[in-house]
User: What shape does this take?
Amino acid sequence: MCGITGYIGDNKTTDILIDGLKRLEYRGYDSCGIAAVDGKNRLYLKRVSGRVDALDKLVAAEPVKGAHAGVGHTRWATHGAPSEDNAHPHTDCSSEVVVVHNGIIENYLDLKEKLLAGGHKFKSETDTEVIAHIVEEKLKSLHVQASAARADMLEPVFFEAFRRAVADLKGSFAISVVWAKCPGMILAARMHSPLVVGLGKGENFIASDVSAFLKHTKRVVFLNDGEMAAVKKDGIDFYTFQGKKVAKEPVTIQWDSTMAEKGGYKHFMLKEIHEQAEAVENTLRGRLLPIGGDILRSEIGLSAEAMKSFSSLQFIACGTAYHAALVGRVLFENFGIAAHADVASEFTDRAKLMAPNTLVIAISQSGETADTLFAVREAKASGAKVLAITNTVGATLTREADYVLHTHCGPEIGVASTKAFLGQLAAIYLLAGHFAAARGRLTGTDARNYAEELLKIPRLIEETLEKEKEIAKVADSFASSEHFLFISRHINYPIALEGALKIKEIAYVHAEGYAAGEMKHGPIAIIYKGMPLLAVAPSGRTLDLMAGNIEEAKARGADVVAIVDEASKKTVKASRYLVLPTTGELFTPMLTVIPLQIFAYYVALAKKCDIDKPRNLAKSVTVR
Assistant: This one.
């Protein structure tokens, strides 16, 4: 998730681009930049490492006159640490082709090697820069004599060069490109990453979402996957990637600018809950198949041989990330791989007692969690290798770890983690599959089934999200409750903990998460008539035991909401059911957590809590 802006028209281009970036900064804030072309085909490029305010000051100090076309970008890093060199826009060797990009170019290393062999010089570590050089190469192949041609004569050539460049790309992308020799047109393309065009009068806009230009126009056209746009100030044409022209009808946006930033959702948290299918898909994309091979070697340096060599795994994390770690422990143990999970703040003594050749897996959304960083240093002092799972490129954790697996979830604005948690789970399932296959614990049909089931999860998440209204109705019936109990077993026990944490974080109520088998060892005493109890009970090896635990709670007066699938619903007796799509037992945590997130959200909404910024909490805990 990054923010793209584009403008063509006779108004102040740089002002419009920067204003758009400020409205898109929630999508990324590692670095930013703008590029504009003036009436004499001169390129103006300004970039900074940091926030848009810094860019605004830089542009104000060195303004450009006469620019009528340009693009801008605010970055959430995926390839290359946050820095000015890695900030967008990126240029080709001649500094005439300018590109901004949102997404991941999966084959960028192969493309980059070919371009380097052809004499191209790169200035960044990003995957995006290859696009500028590919467009440059395609222009050369079309034998452009740019110096002898008028800009309007070059437009068809520019379009064809861009179309051919896009055809070489694999992955997810939203791209906008400007060519200094052809300043009357901006080109854009979309595949698996949002891009929208705004229709003005004598001016037009491009952006990652409508909030960037909503103050200028509410008439928009949303690009679909596999579509391109040729944007001029007096009109826009739309095409397929094959170059076939398509007709598209504009729509009128009814949101205000604040709602637009949130995609029409009332809060960032709800928006991010609905982005979880995409978060999982982005984390898995290009990394899963062939399962058990050396697919992770090129990205993070972790070979199949290395996976075989570790004697055990040790997860360390805090808060929600710790619950992901607990799921990971059960998952790896299911494949016969010794694993432990500890809260990072309590890891000091365990670090000294780890078995030789232990791989420590440190999980942190921000990569700056102080307790996790301290635990990593303790582990490394004891001789362990560290693998980091984080959502933030260039964070301290990534610099201290031996291996880094980034979750590609985009920035998470809501303080209470949702999509970052699903991204962490996706990364853990990805690692578990590769480790198990490399060690011969997952082979043949079982390996294929594991991969196929994991790849189905994003669609099953979407199906689960369709239950939102039903979940909201259940939540509303408990809006006045001040005590909640969450229970489950085995791989979903951490999900009970996560459900309790979510409602505590944003609704400010007392909640407990327990392993269901522990109920009779004390917690059953707190149950009173009408107390809400959420039981996570999908089909699996512990279902009969869960059904018994639910009966025990009901007998003491608990009002039970059961999170089930169609099969387990037949076994569990509850007051109310939330029925989820069916998946394999091991994969159920990636679905069962979603109704608990939505439930917590609607309880907090009914209580009129500050959902995106809950009291006393911060997004990144950087003190011990």
Q: What stands out?
A: The chain has three domains: 3-261, 265-459, 467-624. The chain is about 35% helix and 25% strand. The CA atoms of residues 345 and 371 lie 5 Å apart. The longest strand covers residues 67-75.
